[in-house]
Design goal:
- 80% of the residues lie in helices and 0% in strands.
- With 179 residues, the chain is mainly α.
- The two termini are 26 Å apart.
Length: 179
């Protein structure tokens, strides 16, 4: 949104003034920090795309690492940082960015190994996985996200119900665009 600060302000106000967000903030103390980290990441990502600065990329990886420590879904930002590198610099950039991305994953990995495993005997803490495997849960989440952008009817229904096709197609498009 370079040159259009109004979009950043409007988006921030939507998050700030949302009744459902206010209810969550009242009950989950770390939620505002989680959302702030995501917002700062989203505001810094365009600066990285414009400059391809290593400092900006390290900042994005640091924000992604902190977000992942706040909530497990925050690990998505590590993937987003990787996608930004693919978009900006292609596969060569991704190999140079790998150490920073691994550094972003390291704090969560240490938390899992040094906290969760000794305390509960499982990697992700004492949870009842139920009948759904993690891959099924991720697929369901991706399907719901696809519904935000793709209307459910006819031919598009198959695409929405098979979100991994969208993920692979998006990754391939990023690689082709940045050869």
């Amino acid at each position: 949104f370079q040159g259009r600060v109004i979009y950043a302000v409007a988006g921030s106000l939507v998050i700030l003034l949302s009744r459902s967000m206010l209810r969550i903030h009242a009950n989950v103390a770390s939620e505002p920090l989680f959302e702030t980290l995501i917002l700062v990441f989203c505001l810094e990502a365009p600066a990285y795309l414009r400059t391809s600065s290593q400092k900006k990329f390290v900042l994005l990886c640091g924000l992604a690492a902190l977000t992942a420590l706040q909530r497990y879904p925050g690990i998505v930002l590590i993937g987003v940082a990787g996608a930004l590198v693919l978009f900006r610099s292609g596969i060569r950039g991704a190999t140079r960015a790998a150490p920073a991305l691994m550094g972003a994953i390291a704090p969560l990995g240490l938390w899992v190994l040094l906290h969760n495993l000794p305390a509960s005997g499982t990697l992700f803490g004492p949870r009842e996985l139920g009948a759904m495997l993690p891959v099924q849960n991720i697929t369901l989440s991706l399907t719901k996200i696809a519904w935000w952008f793709i209307p459910r009817f006819g031919v598009l229904d198959w695409l929405v119900l098979h979100p991994w096709v969208l993920v692979l197609a998006s990754a391939a498009a990023l690689l082709v665009m940045n050869r």
